[in-house]
Write a structure and sequence with these properties.
Layout (H helix, E strand, L loop, with lengths): L1 E7 L2 E6 L1 H12 L11 H18 L4 E6 L5 H5 L2 E2 L2 E2 L6 H19 L12 E7 L6 E8 L11 H16 L4 H9 L3 H4 L1 H23 L6 E2 L2 E2 L2 H11 L5 H11 L5 H21 L9 H19 L12
Antiparallel strand pairs: 1-2, 2-3, 4-5, 6-7, 8-9
Helix pairs in contact: 1-2, 4-5, 4-6, 6-8, 8-10, 8-12, 10-11
């Protein structure tokens, strides 16, 4: 399996099966322009051992492979150097790849019944310089880590939806911040549990705020089940303009998006907010008690409701169970 999930300017994201992943591993681990047989026995043994450790996981799992390719002249590279050489933190590759991972990871999560965070682990990343003039290929830096699980049991319909959603999230400015934050919340092992929770909570807050702003003027006020006069209605809207709480906005949004389990989700947010406020205002609980999974669930659920109701993706198969 080798499926292009996203291709955009300088970045590509591919979903790989075992055989395609093996080819990628060879291109990364074996020096450029050489075959494995060209190396001495010690290097061959080391590379084979490393490949086996990765391939054990790829037999039953799919791999997300993100490639960022940008061309620089020698003069351009000077702008990224310090006393120790090229400063990798100054290069744009990390931010581009992080964004690409964010949109594709979010797309896969929304195309599946479960969140990607349950089955995602970082494998490796590396910076490589290819001299177009002479073909020299240099490994500048790499970082590796692998634990025990990656994406598994992904269906064809989920892949096709993930492809559509990846492109939509990459191009859609309205959801850029929400998707960036949501994807960061799926990396508690990388950024820390507290950072992941703050990202998830902020993603939910931003989504609720932006969507409520669009529907606020359409909120109807009734009295004894009859619409009130326009003058009174406008006055109420003016008075309440900046006074709606997060739960008020979420309640209105749940009606707008036709959430069949609105009461359950409103209560979940209410409960989560009490825990969240208790932690940040009085440290009444530990970091691990923060309801990261519940907030991720609400972001996931309401993004799906939004995409389904607004028909943002034609023909996409959105898993509604969240």
């Amino acid at each position: 399996m080798d499926i292009m999930l996203l291709s955009d300017d300088d970045v590509t994201v591919r979903l790989l099966g075992a055989e395609s992943f093996e080819l990628i591993l060879k291109s990364i681990l074996i020096p450029f322009g050489k075959e494995l047989s060209d190396l001495d026995d010690e290097k061959q043994t080391r590379i084979k051992s490393t490949m086996r450790s990765y391939q054990i996981h790829s037999d039953l799992n799919a791999i997300l492979y993100i490639s960022v390719l940008k061309s620089f002249s020698i003069e351009d590279l000077d702008n990224f150097k310090d006393d120790e050489g090229i400063n990798l933190e100054k290069l744009p590759h990390k931010s581009i790849s992080s964004r690409a991972f964010g949109v594709t990871a979010s797309a896969i999560s929304l195309a599946r019944y479960s969140k990607i965070s349950k089955e995602f682990e970082f494998i490796f990343e590396g910076y490589y310089v290819l001299n177009i003039a002479n073909g020299n290929h240099t490994n500048v830096n790499n970082r590796r880590r692998i634990h025990d699980r990656m994406i598994s049991n992904i269906l064809e319909e989920e892949i096709q939806t993930a492809v559509q959603l990846s492109k939509f999230f990459q191009d859609n400015n309205e959801l850029t911040l929400v998707i960036d934050l949501y994807s960061k919340s799926m990396e508690p092992y990388e950024l820390g549990f507290l950072h992941a929770f703050i990202s998830a909570w902020t993603a939910l807050e931003v989504f609720i705020a932006t969507q409520f702003k669009k529907i606020q003027g359409n909120v109807n006020i009734t009295l004894n089940e009859a619409p009130v006069h326009d003058i009174f209605s406008k006055r109420i809207h003016e008075v309440m303009k900046d006074k709606y709480r997060l739960l008020d906005k979420f309640s209105a949004l749940s009606s707008h998006l036709n959430d069949p389990n609105a009461n359950e989700h409103i209560n979940l947010l209410k409960k989560s907010k009490i825990i969240r406020d208790g932690f940040f205002h009085s440290m009444s609980c530990s970091i691990q008690d923060l309801p990261l999974n519940d907030i991720q669930y609400l972001v996931d659920k309401y993004l799906k409701l939004y995409l389904t109701k607004e028909k943002k993706i034609n023909g996409a198969f959105i898993k509604k169970s969240g």
